[in-house]
Write a structure and sequence with these properties.
Elements lengths: L4 E3 L5 E3 L5 H26 L5 H27 L6 H22 L7 H22 L4 H13 L1 H14 L4
Helix pairs in contact: 1-3, 1-4, 2-3, 3-4, 5-6
Amino acid sequence: MNARLQPDASGRRTPTTLRFAKLKLLLLVVFCALPVYGVVTIWLRDGAWLPWLPAAIYLVMSVITFGLYGYDKRQARGEGRRTPEKLLHGLELFGGWPGALVAQQVFRHKTRKVAFQVVFWLIVLLHELFWIDRIVLGGDHVDAAAVGRYRKDASVRQTMQPTIDLLGHDL
C-alpha cells in the first residue's frame, strides 16, 4: 500500500496514510508479545505484585518516549531546540521502545536516519534477548553475569542490598 502525498501547511508533500500499517502493527504485537508473556508468566509463577513492575515501567516509559518523539518532531519542523538522540535512546533502553516504535510511525520521525535506527533496533533486540533469557533459559545467563560481578565487588553488593532486601533473598 503506497501513501498518497499531499502538501501540508508548509508546502512540503507528506504521506496522508501510514505505509504498510498492517505489517507494522504485526511487528509491534510480535515484539511486545515476549515482554507481556514474560510478565504474565512471572506473575502466575510467583503470584507477587513485583512482576507487574516491568509492565508499569514499559507503559510509563513508552508514554514519555512517545511524547518526546512528538515534541522533537514539532521542534524539527519549527527549527527549535531538539531533543538529544542520546535521551531518546536512553528512554528506549529503559523500556520506552514500544512507545518509540509507535511514535516513529505516527510522527514519521527518525525513520530514515540509519545510524539512529541501528541503535534503536539493537535496543529492541537487547530487550528481546533479556526476555528470552528470563522465559526460555530461566534467567540464568543474565543472573550469572550479575551475580559474578555482585560477589566480586563489595560496592556493587552494597548498592544492590536494598533490592535484595525487597526481593527477600540473597544471591
